[in-house]
Structures are given as C-alpha cells and as structure tokens.
Amino acid sequence: MITSEEVKEVGKRCGADLVGIGSMDRFEGAPKQMDPRYIMPEAKSIIGIGFRIHRGLFRGIEEGTFFAAYTAMGYATINDGYAPKVLREVGNFIEDNGYETMLYQNTVFG
C-alpha cells in the first residue's frame, strides 16, 4: 500500500509545486460535468497537482505593458507541456503500485 506522503513526494520530485489529496465525497452536490465520480465511480480519492506561475509573468498584465509572457511561459506552457508530464509520472507511480489512475489535465469548461 502506498501512502499519501509517498504520492506527494513523487509529485514534487517530478516538478509539482503543490500536491493535495482529497476525498471524493467533497464533490457531493457538484454539477454532473464537474464531478469526477462520473468518470471513476469506484475512486475513493482525488489528487490535485498545482504549479506556480512566476510573479514576473503577472507584472505585464498589471502594468498593461506586456501580456504575451503570461500565456507563453505561464498558463499555457504549464497546462499543455509541463503538467501532463508530471501527471503521467505520478500516474505511473500509482499504477506501478497496484492502483488504477485516470489522468485528467486542466481544461476549460464551456
């Protein structure tokens, strides 16, 4: 059996700035399209992984001078390039220890 501390350690070692684990019952009352229990009804826990966006990338937005860096090196790069690699490594660790994972990266709901 793996512990939450081990999962968090792997996530951080792979590049996450934050790793949290929560109970699926936290989604009670959430809209169906936002409830991960519809994807994996047997799941007992959900793992959230977070990544920092460097402070300087917000400066241009605040000052109204330079916006491109935020998306180029911040939000989009994390969501489309960096985070999926970290998610995959954490998922590999969990599945290598006998559990099933469903990796889901940050997306925009419309």
Features:
globular; single chain; 2 strands; 3 helices; two-stranded antiparallel ribbon; 110 residues
Could you tell me the number of beta strands?
2
Low-confidence stretches: none
Radius of gyration over all CA atoms, rounded:
16 Å
Shape: globular
Judged by helices, strands and strand pairing, the structural class is alpha+beta
**Portion of residues in helices?**
40-55%
Strand proportion, as a percent range, falls in: 5-15%
Mean pLDDT: 92
Distance between the ends: 38 Å
Major β-sheet annotation = 2 strands, antiparallel
Helix run count: 3
Order of helices and strands: HEEHH
Q: Going across the biggest sheet, name each strand in turn.
A: 1-2
Q: Could you describe the 3D structure shown?
A:
This protein is α+β, with helices and mostly antiparallel strands. Helices cover 44% and strands 11% of the residues. The protein is built from 3 helices and 2 strands. The longest helix is centred in the C-terminal third of the chain and has 29 residues, at 68-96.
